[in-house]
Each structure stands twice: as C-alpha cells, then as structure tokens.
Amino acid sequence: MIAIVKQSAQPEQLSHFISWIEGRGYRTNVSHGDNETIVGIIGDTTKIDPFLLESMDIIDRVRRVSEPYKLANRKFHPEDTVVDCGHGVLIGGGNFQVMAGPCSVEGDNLIEIARAVRAAGATMLRGGAYKPRTSPYAYQGMGEHGLDLLLAASAELDMPVVSEVMDPRDVQLFVDRGVDVMQVGARNAQNFNLLKEVGKTTTPVLLKRGLAGTIDELLMAAEYVMSEGNPNVILCERGIRTFETRTRNTFDINAIPVLHHLTHLPVVGDPSHATGYTRYVRSAAFAATAAGADGLEIEVHNRPQEAWSDGAQALTPDSFLDTMRRIALIRQAVTAELG
Ligand code: PEP
Ligand code: MN
C-alpha cells in the first residue's frame, strides 16, 4: 500500500505519520519526489483501512498495490483450481460442466426434467429447495422434501446436485444429506455468516455474484469461504443490476476473462438469471462459453408456463438440447489448438 502525502505536510507531521504506521507493526519506505512524497507501507496491509488514512490531514490519497484477497488470488496460486463436485465430475482447469434443471424443485416433474437434461449432456443437476424470493408471498420452495427429490434424481442418474442454501443453520443439513454443491445465491453474496458457515465444510460452493456486487466484492466473498478452510469455490457471473430494464439483469461477460485473470477458481456463467427471458438465454449461454467460462448454469423446465418460479427464463428440454449441441461446437472453437 502506498500513501501519497500532501505537499503542504510539515516534516514533523510526516514523521508523526511514519511512527504511527510503524507503531502498528509495518515497515515504511519514504521517497521524496520533486512534487510529492510517497510513503510505502510494507507488511500485511489487509487490516489497514485506506479511508482512515485518507481522512488524515496530511494524506492526499492512498493506493493498494496488492489485492486484499490472498487465497483466491492467482498471483499466489498460478495454476487453475479444479473442483471435484462428486460423481466423477470435475470443474475448472479445462473441465467444462453444465448444471441444468428447474429454478425450484416442485415435485415429481423433477425426475422428468433431470432425465431430459442428462440426456442432453448436462453433467450436474440444479434445483432450488429453499428459494430466496423478493416477495415473502411468492413460492418459498419445498424445503427438505425438495432435497429428497434432488438426491433421488442424483442417485438414479449418477450426477451431482447443486442446490441453494440460504440459512447458516441449514448448512449442516445440506452436508449430512450429501448435497454435492451448495449454492450461495446473489442475494446472499455478502451474507458473511453464511459464507463463513459454508467455509467450515469441504463441500464445493457455487458462489454467485451479488445483484450489485463488483468483481472484487465477489472475490472477497470467495476469500471469506476459503479463509475458513474450504478451497472448493466455484464463482458464478449471473448478471448485475444496471440502468437497463429490457432484461432482468445485465450479463457482465467481461467478468469471465477478468476473473480468470485475477483468480485461479473456476468461473461459471448463468445466462438464465442474467437475461430473465427464455428468448435471450441461448445467446447469452453461447457468449459465456465463448468468453471462456468453465461451465454454465441453465434453468430448464418441462412446462415453463407452469413453473412455480422463473418460468419466463426457462428453456424447454428441446431447446436445451439444441443449445448444448451448439455449445459443444463453440467449446471446440475456443479450445482448439491452431497450427
Ligand atoms: C437461482 O439460481 O435460482 C437463483 C435464485 O439465482 P440468483 O441467486 O443468481 O438470483
Ligand atoms: Mn431461478
């Protein structure tokens, strides 16, 4: 971290600042330029609040030169992390996986949808048993019975399941029941107690970007999980809130290569929540694949018009199959070795 000192600072103010910093266990390196004086602060500066320094009279501005996330940072872990999702399914480091299924588990149609997505090439089954809904009057999910249905489908089809955990008190239930991947949803992207709780397990975590979360905030959320001891984090770009109203969210395709640059963790794209409308989901899925995503999460329903949540963005099994076939072609183009 560097602190740029105001030209008006008096030498005694500067030495007082330096002793204050050093008194907190950091080393300093002062460089006097023609126009400004820069104090380099050396040590683990993650605990320093840059705004506190900037509030001091003699400080003009403060810049971090290293990121506050360490465990998620590619600088300290250059090779891609591969997360083992169970049932022999690996994601990251060249392993591409598609997780598909309904927004929420609704009952016996789950197995029908699961068989269809499996047949189309999905390698993981998604479905919400606990639903974070904007309205308390909207369908809240089947709860534990929903997990039963997911796990029965997982056993029949030998594929891992991804399901959202909303409450830190449910994390142990998910682990005991053997849910393969716990999803932390966009609305909980900064629910630090939940992040810490899933971090105490070794179950893979699919961590979605917050509704208005920056890329750095997503990385800090991953850091929360990892700092508790769970290295199995998969990041998910699912669109962010912008001024645009034609789609449910704005798909930040940039985030996919940016995240790959900044972190070694696998990155998945969710074209369903990113667009909100079935008619746009395929294009967004293609774009995420072309941008180098390690996987996709796509909502599929056998009768979208009757879905209990997010029917407006669900693909039918037929359209999902077509999408999967084209995604395979895009993957070939993106990963081909050109002579
Ligand atoms: C979901 O996956 O159904 C969901 C609620 O996603 P998000 O948290 O991204 O809105
Ligand atoms: Mn949904």
Short description:
The chain has helices at 11-22, 50-54, 109-120, 144-157, 171-177, 192-199, 215-227, 255-262, 271-275, 278-290, 317-335; strands spanning 2-5, 27-32, 37-42, 59-63, 83-84, 90-91, 97-101, 124-126, 161-164, 181-184, 205-208, 233-237, 267-269, 295-299. The chain is an alpha/beta fold.
The figure for the number of domains is 2
Instruction: State the low-pLDDT regions, or none.
Output: none
Distance between the ends: 44 Å
The proportion of residues in beta strands is: 15-25%
The CATH topology assignment of the largest domain is TIM Barrel
Strand order in space, largest sheet: 7-8-9-10-11-12-13-14
Radius of gyration: 23 Å
| Molecules bound to protein | phosphoenolpyruvate, manganese (II) ion
Q: Would you state the CATH class of the largest domain? A: Alpha Beta
Helices, by number, come to 11
- Overall residue-averaged pLDDT value: 96
CATH architecture descriptor name of the largest domain = Alpha-Beta Barrel
Core attributes:
339 residues; TIM Barrel; 2 domains; binds manganese (II) ion; 4-stranded antiparallel sheet; alpha/beta; binds phosphoenolpyruvate; 8-stranded parallel barrel; 11 helices; Alpha-Beta Plaits
Describe the structure.
- Helix content is about 35%, strand content about 15%.
- The protein has about 350 residues and is an alpha/beta fold.
- The chain folds into two domains: about 1-65, Alpha-Beta Plaits (2-Layer Sandwich); about 85-335, Alpha-Beta Barrel (TIM Barrel).
- An eight-stranded parallel barrel has the order 7-8-9-10-11-12-13-14, surrounded by six helices. Strands 2-3-1-4 form a four-stranded antiparallel beta sheet. It has a two-stranded antiparallel sheet with strand order 5-6.
- Helix 8 links the parallel strand 12 and strand 13.
- Helix 10 packs parallel to helix 11 (about 315-335).
- The two termini are about 45 Å apart.
- The model has no long low-confidence stretch (mean pLDDT about 95).
